[in-house]
Specification:
Layout lengths: L1 H5 L2 H7 L4 H8 L3 H6 L1 H14 L1 H27 L6 H6 L12 H28 L1 H4 L17 H21 L6 H15 L7 H21 L5 H26 L12 H25 L8 H24 L6 H7 L1 H19 L5
Length: about 350
């Protein structure tokens, strides 16, 4: 009886080991098992490295190359910022306000002045982006610029700068002799700005505003008209307000790391400066209308109506800057805000009416 019971015992003993075998394989850390453990890890790496690299890694590198070749002309055009050329269209023709009567010669010379400052500003934009490419990478918006993002190499940007400089030299030689010195002074100030003056608080904003006065002066020189001091002060204070507003927006949006000059500002300090300069803009504009504007003798109603339009435009910009936290790009504010566009259209109609009714001689 015991012998027959002991004979089936061995199969039970043999059947018991299969249950612990899978547990021992996962729990043991013997050398034999350690040599077998890398094999599954190699298998998990192989699908991503040996088999997938020829298909997935080649596709992402080929697509950016095609996009870079297609977008190279577009990136080079974006590098000279054609959206900012409206500054020249808005400032240079202001010299026509003090020139009468208008003729084809005055209009052609105005266009020539716009072309010169467009070339000069394009040179400044490229040089500035070359110098600031490391800082621009820290900015949430400027990091998408062509040089900062790597879409345009520094070598290609340098070649573009040379071509623009040659074109600007041809513009100066082909134009009236020695009437291009405001553009040359603007270029010198802007290069000094790019090389270090942009890091000096207040000086950076004043240089930017001075560049717009030089635009106005270039238009007056080529036209042969007289430049009103009140108009020059109005343009200077207005552009200084926009420049300070831009710095305030940059400080609130991205901090002070990307622009060293912002360390010399605080939001409260900039708020006071912007309001002060806005008041100076309004006063100088009214004094220009009263003393120097070439308006008709009976156009006093235009002065009374256009002055509130100017003050309303300043107030609207302060609202966008201080209340709605905008103002990072003054050109976009002036061209995309519907309230500003309607107000500017009404102001333009009033000014054109005054200019059309002024005496011809």
């Amino acid at each position: 009886m015991d012998i027959t019971r002991s004979s089936p015992a061995p199969p039970r003993v043999v059947a018991v080991p299969p249950d612990p075998e899978p547990v021992d394989l996962t729990a043991l850390s013997e050398p034999a098992h350690l040599t077998s453990l890398p094999e599954p890890t190699d298998l998990t790496v192989r699908p991503g490295s040996a088999h997938d690299r020829p298909e997935t890694a080649a596709a992402p590198t080929a697509v950016p190359e095609e996009r870079r070749r297609r977008s190279r002309p577009r990136d080079l055009l974006a590098l000279v910022r054609p959206g900012q050329w409206v500054k020249n269209l808005a400032v240079v023709p202001l010299a026509l306000l003090d020139t009468h009567p208008w003729g084809a010669a005055e209009l052609l010379r105005t266009g020539w002045a716009i072309l010169g400052f467009t070339l000069a500003s394009a040179v400044v934009y490229v040089v500035n982006d070359l110098a600031d490419r490391e800082r621009d990478r820290l900015h949430p918006v400027k990091r998408h610029r062509p040089i900062a993002s790597g879409r345009v190499s520094p070598a290609a940007a340098t070649v573009l700068t040379g071509l623009l400089a040659l074109s600007l030299t041809g513009w100066a030689v082909a134009g009236p002799a020695w009437r291009w010195w405001p553009t040359a002074l603007y270029l010198a100030l802007s290069l000094a700005y790019s090389q270090g003056l942009k890091h000096v608080p207040l000086v950076d904003a004043f240089i930017v505003a001075t560049g717009f006065v030089l635009r106005l002066l270039q238009g007056a020189l080529l036209i042969g008209g007289r430049l009103s001091e009140w108009l020059a002060l109005c343009v200077f204070s207005l552009c200084l307000m926009l420049s300070l507003g831009k710095r305030r927006h940059e400080m609130t949006a991205a901090g002070r790391a990307h622009r060293p000059a912002l360390r010399g500002y605080t939001p409260a300090f900039l708020d006071h400066l912007v309001v002060l300069v806005a008041a100076l803009t309004a006063v100088s504009y009214v004094l220009y209308l009263r003393d120097d504007a070439a308006l008709a003798a009976g156009a006093s109603f235009v002065i009374l109506l256009s002055a509130p339009c100017a003050v309303f435009g300043l107030a609207r910009y302060l609202q966008l800057l201080l209340v709605e936290e905008g103002g990072g790009n003054p050109v976009h504010v002036l061209l995309r805000d519907r309230v500003t566009l309607v107000n500017a259209g009404l102001w333009a109609v009033l000014v054109v009416l005054a200019l059309l009714t002024r005496p011809s001689g």
